[in-house]
Amino acid sequence: MHNYLILLRRELGCYFLSLTGYVIIAGALILLGLGFAVMLLAYNGDTIDVPLTELFYGTMFFWLIVLVATPVITMRLFAMERATGTFETLMTAPVGDGQVVLAKFTAAFLFYLVMWLPLASCLRLVHHYTATGLEFDWWPVVSTYLGILLIGSLYIAIGCLASALTRSQIIAAMTSFAVGVSLFLLSFLRFSVGQRSGFAAQVATYTSMFDHMEDFVRGVVDTRHIVFYLTLTGICLFLTLKVVESRRWR
Amino acid sequence: MTDSAEARAMIEVENLTKLYGRRAAVHDVTFTVGKGEIVGLLGPNGAGKTTIMRILACFMPATSGVARVAGLDVFQESDQVRRRIGYMPENNPLYHDMRVREYLKFRARLKGLSIQESRARVDEVTERCGLAEVSSQVIGNLSKGYRQRVGLADALVHQPQLIILDEPTIGLDPHQIRAVRQLILELGKDHTILLSSHILPEVEMTCQRVVILHNGRVLAADSTQNLQQRLSGASQVLTEIAAPPDELEACFKQNQDIEYHDISPTDSGYCRCTIVPRTGLDLRPAIFELVQTHGWRLRELTLSRHSLEDVFVHVTRPDRDEEES
After folding, report:
1. How far is CA A154 from its chain centroid?
2. Strand pairing report for B9-20 and B258-265
3. For residue B242, is pLDDT > 80?
4. What are the CA-CA distances from residue A121 to residues A96, A141, B228 (Å)?
5. Partners of B39 in the beta sheet?
6. How would you class B321 by CB atoms within 10 Å of its CB: exposed for 0-12, middle for 13-18, buried for 19 or more?
7. Which domain holds residue A89?
8. Distance (Å) of CA B10 to CA A179, B42, B99, B163
9. Is pLDDT larger for residue A182 or for residue B43?
10. Which one of A30, A195, B71, B277 is least enclosed by Cβ atoms within 10 Å?
11. Distance CA B55, CA B42 (A)
12. A20 and B CB contact within 8 Å
């Protein structure tokens, strides 16, 4: 635990004490801003009976940010340490492999959450100028953030695994981007097989991240979705640990 | 292994083998390093020095064989071993985005020191390694010499019993090499040190004992003096004598102690002679006597000692493998 916190602090420092972290946040903010603008145009003086979060989700900028930002956040985690050789200094210090993997994952995950914070202020701002006299409905915002958190944890874990597999940051980013996009595109399988009944259709519906997130932005929290993301994140982190340990039996 | 030997040995390596695929990087290596010694691993590139060091530093396990540090198995009790080792890998990798003091503190904390301890130790090692004036600079902006010192400071920040340095002077200029060498000698007073190098004068100057590796095997392991002596059995005498070459030739041939001689005339009547004795004998008095009795003139008489470099070249020369097989 002691070592985990020291490593976590170092990893967080990597993001926030250098320019890289701010460049990523700035990039995400541009996309978020575009989404915000599109959302405002959608309002355009009309009364719309859907939560703000669903409106934002409808702009698709959400997926753009998740798919592009997570590989960039995670690519350096292990690949850079391997490329510069600091992996050797790190692993010959008295630290456990699990502590290293968990600390790196947590740092990337926390950074990812910080990156999403401006969304809350965007939503609050829109609400401030539209719903006069109405109570702000926090629940969809909370569930949306839960969705962001869960999908993020899976994508960050995939990024960790990709980064642990190579010493090139570019290859790490490309791998996790490719896997991430493929997972996302699986969602659309539902449109072709979803109408039919049977096992394939069930699987397609269960793995459709597009639908999961649609539930979250509406304020629906389904435990099946939570279990889905937590297990996949766990599997990816377990595989990352095995890759890091693999130097012992290669 | 007896108790007393166990108490004395800091590193025990027995029949260590490491295979990369089917190629053996280290093959059946056995050596020990006693407490307080400075030992050099010497060998051409690809001899297996780095592999042995990585195994000792618990970065990767051996394929077979045993390696113990301070009596602890490097694979079974890896965590305990890592607490006792200060390891500086090849090319001295550092986090270039961190400041010197910040980095050393991070490393000290990671190696299990408390906040107070780490503060005191970091102060001490920055002083000792001459890093005081750059302690608040970013490592990426430092010169190579300073970076090397940061690596050394990191290796000794937790007061390890054993310091392992992989090529500690590579890529440094002569001044920096001298400074690092001085530091290593100083550290040797209260730490056991294992360092690797392919630069021979380096090892000759800093180490008490040398393990010479070639193609993953130990070719020789002995003290630097012994290694030199082993070859100085054939140490030759260089001399310049003003005498007719054929007379010299006759004299040398008569002398039973001379195994081989070579005479080449130089300027103003002097002949340059290279004389190799049959045994470990020092031929200088005999030559001087010869010159005196004949009334010749002498302007040079030197015993050429074999440096460790000669030993190294001798034992690692490529045709040695063919001789063996």
Report:
1. 6
2. unpaired
3. yes
4. 39, 11, 77
5. B194, B209
6. exposed
7. 2-248
8. 48, 19, 33, 11
9. A182
10. A195
11. 17
12. no
Beta carbons within 8 Å of B270's beta carbon, 6+ residues apart: B240, B241, B242, B299
Q: Is A246 on the interface with B (CB under 8 A)?
A: no
Selected for mutation to probe chain A from B77, B81, B95 (highest A CB count within 10 Å) is B95
Which fold would CATH assign to domain B3-223?
Rossmann fold (3.40.50)
- All residues of chain B having their beta carbon less than 8 Å from the beta carbon of residue A11 are none
Please provide the CATH number assigned to the domain covering B236-304. 3.30.70.3100
For residue B175, the model assigns a pLDDT of 84
Residues B218-239 as b/e (b if ≥16 CB within 10 A, e otherwise) read bbbbeebeebbbebbeebbbeb
Check CB contact of B82 with chain A, cutoff 8 Å.
yes
d(CA B216, CA B223): 20
Rounded Cα gap, residues B107 and B39, in angstroms: 25
Cα distance between residue A172 and residue A177, in whole Å: 8
Confidence of residue A27 (pLDDT cuts 50, 70, 90): very high
- Judged against a pLDDT cut of 90, whether residue A28 lies above it is answered with yes
Tally of structural domains, chain A: 1
Q: How far apart are CA B156 and CA B55, in angstroms?
A: 19
How large is the ipTM? Answer: 0.86
Q: Read off the pLDDT of residues B268-314 as tens digits, 9 standing for 90 and up.
A: 788 888 887 776 677 888 888 888 888 888 888 887 766 666 666 76
Question: Is residue B181 within 8 Å of residue B202, measured between CB atoms?
Answer: yes
CATH 3.40.50.300 domain position(s) in chain B: 3-223
Residue written as token pair 């394939």: A200
Residues of A in Cβ contact (< 8 Å) with B85: 92
User: Cα B251 from chain centroid?
Assistant: 42
pLDDT at B280: 65
Cβ–Cβ contact B191 with A under 8 A: no
pLDDT at B1: 43
CA–CA dist B148, B130 (Å, integer): 11
The three-class DSSP label of residue A193 is: helix
Three-state secondary structure string covering B216-262: CEEEEEEEHHHHHHHHHCCCEEEEEEECCHHHHHHHHHHCCCEEEEE
